[in-house]
Amino acid sequence: MDIKIEKVTYNNPKHRKILKVVLSKWFINPKELNWTDPRINYPFNFNKWVELTYKNPKVNSFVLNKNKLIVGMGNIIFNKQTKYAHALHIFIAPECRNNGFATKILKYFETIAKNEKMEKIICYFFKINIFIFKNIIR
Q1: Which is nearest to 59 in space by CA: 94, 19, 103, 99?
Q2: Buried b / exposed e across 5-20, counting CB within 10 Å, b at 16+?
Q3: Which of 24, 52, 30 is CA-nearest to residue 42?
Q4: How many independent structural domains does the chain possess?
């Protein structure tokens, strides 16, 4: 199983096109969309998604590829003044869950946050996902 985490950007037309297709498929379920970003109403609107969060140049976006297919995504913002990082919009495709992919993204974020000299990572989770957070904190 070939798993890679790759940086993407919504400003890159190729990345944007792929992200639009992938996210539109993932957010066909209104609950998935609401759990990921309650600010966006169903049906999913990719342009609003980008406008609300991804026009900010401080947002670093990553996708998790398994055998060259996108199975998850996550984003992180670094605040150099507070030395806090904020992980957001971490999402794993429903058919790929329970394989440790969210943990893999969070551990990757932990590594890059340390490299950026961050002292804390802020993540917001639903109660059903708290176990993921507890598993990466030692």
Answers
A1: 19
A2: beebebeeeebbeebb
A3: 30
A4: 1
- d(CA 77, CA 87) in angstroms, rounded, equals 7
Q: CA angle, 76 as apex, 51 and 95 as ends, to 5°?
A: 85
Cα angle, residue 126 at apex, residues 48 and 5 outer, rounded to 5°: 65
Query: What is the 8-class DSSP label of residue 41?
Result: P
Supply the CATH number for residue 8's domain. 3.40.630.30
Q: Which residues contact 135 (CB under 8 A, 6 or more apart)?
A: 103
pLDDT tens for each residue of 34-77: 989 999 999 999 999 999 999 999 999 999 999 999 999 999 99
Host domain of residue 94: 3-136
Give the strand pairing for 3-8 and 59-66.
antiparallel
pLDDT on residue 126: 64
